[in-house]
Amino acid sequence: MKLRAAAKIASMLMCLTGVSAGGQTAVDRIASGDRELKALNLSNALREFEAALAIQPDNHDALVKAAQAAVELGEFNANADQRAALYASAEQYARRALAANANSAEAHFELAQALGRNALAQSARDRIKFAREVRDQALEALKVDPQHSGALHVMGMWNAEVMRLNGFTRMLAKNFLGGKVFGEANWDDAQKYLERAVTADPDRIIHRLDLAGVYADRHDRARAIEQYEWIARAPSSAFNDPRYKDEAARKLNALR
After folding, report:
1. Residue 18: left (phi > 0), alpha (psi -120 to 50), or beta?
2. In 3D, which of 140, 192, 186, 147 has the Cα closest to residue 165?
3. pLDDT of residue 19
4. CA-CA distance, 228 to 234, in Å (whole number)?
5. CA distance 169 to 228
6. 19 forms bridges with which residues in the sheet?
7. Comparing 8 with 135, which gets the higher pLDDT?
8. How would you class 15 by CB atoms within 10 Å of its CB: exposed for 0-12, middle for 13-18, buried for 19 or more?
9. HSE on the CB side for 59, CA within 13 Å?
C-alpha cells in the first residue's frame, strides 16, 4: 500500500513539475513533436504531443497540436472506425485546450475543424447536428483573431456546405430542427470568407482548393481554373497537400 501511495505521489509530482520519469519535460516532447510535424511524420508527431500530455495533461500547446495532428491524420484515413476515433480524439483535445485557455483562437478553431471534418463524414441530415457548433466555434476564434485563416476557411466552408445541402434538408434544418441560423448561409459569404483565408495565408493549398470549389459551384470557371493551376505549381508543405494536389488536378481536367 505504501509503495502504491508513493508511486501515486511521484506521478502527481511529475505532472506538477512537467518532467517525465525519463527526465524529459513536456516542452521537450512538444519540441520533438514539432520536428516530426515539420518532417510531415504526423503519426510520430501525435505520439510526441500525447507523451507531453501524459506529463502535463493541461498543456495548452500540446493539446492544440495533438488536435491538429489527429484531424489531419483522420481526413484521408480509409478506415471509418479509425477516422472516427481520430476525430473524437481531436475534439476532446480541443475541448481540453479550451478548458485550459477559453480565449484561445487556436483551440476554438481546432474544435470547429474536428467537428466539421466529422460532419463531412456523415449523411446530409446528420451534418446538421454538428453545423451550429462548427459555426459558433469558428466565430469565437475570429473574435479573438479576425485574420485567423483557418477559422475564415471554416466559415467559408460552413456557408458552402449548407448551400450544398438539398433544398428539403435545408428547409428541415431551418424549420424543424431549431436551425434558423441555416437561413443565414449564402454563396456570397462562402466566397468572401475563403478569399479572406487565401489573403491571410496565401501559400496554404487547402484554402485555394476549397475556394476553387466554390468558384466552380458558382459557375465562375475561369477563377476556379486559376486556383487549380496555382495548386499544380505549388510545392507541398503540409501532410495532406499531395492529396489536395491530386484532387485539384482531377477537377482541373474536368473543367478543361
Report:
1. left
2. 186
3. 64
4. 10
5. 30
6. 25
7. 135
8. middle
9. 25
Percentage of the chain beyond pLDDT 70 is 86
d(CA 183, CA 163) in angstroms, rounded, equals: 10
- pLDDT tens readout for residues 165-187: 887 766 666 654 456 678 889 99
CA dihedral 229, 234, 236, 240 (to 10 degrees): -30
Q: Which of 196, 126, 125 is nearest to 157 (CA)?
A: 196
Q: Tell me which amino acid residue 21 is.
A: A
Nearby residues of 130 by Cβ (< 8 Å), 6 or more positions away: 115, 116, 118, 119, 122
Query: Partners of 25 in the beta sheet?
Result: 19
What are the residues whose beta carbons fall under 8 Å from the beta carbon of 142, sequence distance 6 or more?
105, 148, 151, 152, 155
Dihedral (Cα; 130, 132, 135, 138), 10-degree rounding: -70
Give this prediction's pTM.
0.87
DSSP assignment, residue 235?
A: P
10-57 pLDDT per residue, tens: 454 455 556 655 679 999 999 999 999 999 999 999 999 999 999 999
Closest CA to 97 of 75, 70, 74: 70
Sign of CA dihedral 140, 141, 145, 146: negative
> Helix (H, G, I), strand (E, B), or coil: what is residue 19?
strand
pLDDT bracket for residue 118 (50, 70, 90): confident
Q: Distances in Å between the alpha carbon of 155 and those of 142, 147, 151, 152?
A: 10, 12, 6, 5
CA distance 186 to 159: 6
Cα(225)–Cα(219) distance, rounded to whole angstroms?
11
